[in-house]
Amino acid sequence: MSDLAQVKDNIRTFSDDSVLSEDELALIKEVSDSLHRLYAVPCTACRYCCADCPQELDIPFFLASYNEYKTGGEKDLSSWRLARLNALPEEKRPSACIGCGHCTAHCPQGLDVPAYMKEMAVLM
Ligand code: SF4
Ligand code: SF4
């Protein structure tokens, strides 16, 4: 909030304590489910996971590629999105993940990163 008008507007908004209707809740769930389908892995690219990765893997980049693969439509194009990771040195690819779980311990989304790395290593 950057001025008094915005403060007043927010107070007005939150002064109404009526709960959402069943229809409104159903709509929110529908939108939420659609978003989850669209983004296969809800990684926000915050990079909290990166500092403690003993393999120094670019985890958010991998997960972005994984999402592109999952949501890319055409099969050939989708596969290419993961195949391009083969251009990385072997020790920097998803297959270099040792499954230590340090990344998951730092992830605010609680993502099972090692499982995605394992899946990507097979798909590539
Ligand atoms: S589980 Fe894999 S990606 Fe996660 S910190 Fe360990 S080596 Fe890095
Ligand atoms: S900590 Fe989690 S959400 Fe953040 S970049 Fe890493 S995997 Fe993505």
Set out the fold topology.
Layout lengths: L3 H12 L6 H17 L20 H13 L3 H9 L18 H5 L6 H11 L1
Helix pairs in contact: 3-4, 3-6
The chain binds iron/sulfur cluster (SF4) (2 copies).
The site of one iron/sulfur cluster has 15 residues, from helix 3.
Can you count the beta strands?
A: 0
Give the termini separation.
Answer: 46 Å
Residue stretches low in confidence (pLDDT < 50, at least 5 long) are none
What compounds are bound to the protein? Answer: iron/sulfur cluster
Number of helical segments? 6
| Percent of sequence in beta strands | under 5%
Keywords:
124 residues, mainly alpha, 6 helices, 54% helix, elongated, binds iron/sulfur cluster
Give a short overview.
The chain has 124 residues and is an all-alpha fold. It has helices at 4-15, 22-38, 59-71, 75-83, 102-106, 113-123.
Report on the structure:
This protein has 124 residues and is an all-alpha fold. The protein has a domain at 59-123. It is built from six helices and no strands. It has helices spanning 4-15, 22-38, 59-71, 75-83, 102-106, 113-123. The longest helix is centred in the N-terminal third of the chain and has 17 residues, at 22-38. The protein is elongated and about 55 Å long. The termini are far apart. The mean pLDDT is 89. Residues 43-49, 59-60, 63, 106-107, 109, 111, 113 line the site of one iron/sulfur cluster (SF4).
